[in-house]
Structure formats: structure tokens, C-alpha cells
Specification:
Elements lengths: L6 H14 L4 H13 L3 H14 L4 H13 L3 H14 L5 H12 L3 H15 L3 H13 L3 H11 L11 H13 L4 H7 L2
Helix pairs in contact: 1-2, 2-3, 3-4, 4-5, 5-6, 6-7, 7-8, 8-9, 9-10
Length: about 190
Amino acid sequence: MKGKNEYDAAFGLLQHCLDINPTASSALYEISQYYMFLRQVPQGQVALEQAVAFAPDNYWYSQGLVSLYQQQNELDKAAALLEKMVTRFPSKQDPLFSLLDIYSRQEKYNDVISTLNRLEKRLGKNEQLSMEKFRIYLQMKDDKKAFQEIEKSGTGISDGYALSGDIGRCVSSEWKKSRKHTMHIRRSWR
């Protein structure tokens, strides 16, 4: 019926399904989509939240609800659901990347670092994650941890060559405090 654009009849059948089984997650999900199509977002959100509650192991229902929360700027709800998804769907990386985005937008830098650490445990240490942690530590005004992250990263950039901007400022600041790196400072600033 949906394919034939007979929306009223399809909506009626879904309502009938829910009368028979009010916890039918597939019917709740489908009816939530109809509400969204009709721009009745509050009713759609309630139906989608119920679908997720009755089928917590359905990744796509949860992902749809996260997207809706983000569209409605309900970032705390989106983050809470994503945290559950990280545990419930350990093979999926998307929830962690979505958490990074939300925590960054909220400027919850400790949560960003924690999420980056969780990604690092799953993916292994890599330059991109280390550089992101470095950038976040700089935003937190913690040059010491930023420098330590670069040293731990094994990226080869902590030797001070060809560094500019924030990286150069941080590395230069830390190395100036340390006598054992005096030679590196001279080489990097020639």
C-alpha cells in the first residue's frame, strides 16, 4: 500500500497492528516514519523511541533515533543513546565517531579525549587520533598533555622539524623547559 501511495490505508493497517500488539517495534518504526512524513515530529519521536525501547538490538532504529535527536538539537539525548550503542554494538565504529562530533560541538573536551581513547583501543594507535587528541589538549590549554601526546604518538614530528602554528608553539614551549632537548630546539628553529 505504501508503494501505491495509499498512505491512509497503510497508516490504518499499522494502527490496527499496534492495537493487536502495542509493542510491535516494526510497526512503531513504520508509523514513526509516517508521522515524520506528515511533519508531526513529536508523535514520530514518541513512536521511534518506543520502537527502540522494544527492539534495543536493532541498530538501525537506534541510529534513526540518534539522527532525529540531532536534528532536534537534543544532543544530550543523542549522546546518551550513542553511549548505549557503543556497548550494545561493539563492532560498529560509527557511534564513537558520532559521539566525537557531539562532544566537540558541546565543547565537552574530556569526553572527546575519552572517546578518542576508546577509538584508539579499537583501531590501534595512529597518527590521526593522536593529532586529534593533541588538538583537543591545545583547546583545553593543556600544552603539556598535548606535547606528551605527540611524544607518545611515534609520528616522528616531535623531533621539532618543520613545525608551525600550534604544534610549533607547544613543542617549542615544552622543549625550552627541558635541557635534554636543547640541541633539537636549535635545529628546528634555524
